[in-house]
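Progress report, Aim 2. The chain analyzed during this reporting quarter is listed below.
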Amino acid sequence: MLAKKGEWDGTVGWHKNAKREKIFYISNPLFYDISAVFHLKRKPIKFKKLKDLKGLRAGLIMGYEYKVIDPLVKKGIVKASYVPREELAFKMLLNERFDFFPLSLDVGNAILQSKFTKKERDLIEHLVVPNKAPFTLYMLYKNERSKVLIKGFNKGLKKWRI
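Predicted structure tokens for the chain:
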């Protein structure tokens, strides 16, 4: 991450976690992301409890933190295949290399619209997961201006939200 290396003043569009809190000032939420589970229409995913996912294969992006899925993988409830980027995960889903792929609904739909044909898109559907995650601005602690910039950003964000 270029911001972490100090090459950039900050970065935006990440979920808050303990690791990032040690390095960055974190703004108030910019927006809330809606999570989804993408899967093939011909292989519907139905679950009421997380343990209902037992034995399924998840497609996960390398370096992402999955607060709900990671513990299931560690316990052996869900099997995981890790891929470097989202587009590849959708291709692998289409080739039935795994059963589902958790991703932001907006990001997933944008990738499907821009990188896949209508015929391919028609094979995939999603379930919305009742999880709204805040996306925030991050400014590096070691940058002297960061604290002032975050305060100004939060002030402007508050005015904008009225």
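The chain has a mean pLDDT of 90. Strands lie at 10-14, 24-26, 31-40, 57-61, 79-83, 101-104, 124-140. These observations will guide the mutagenesis work planned for the next reporting period.
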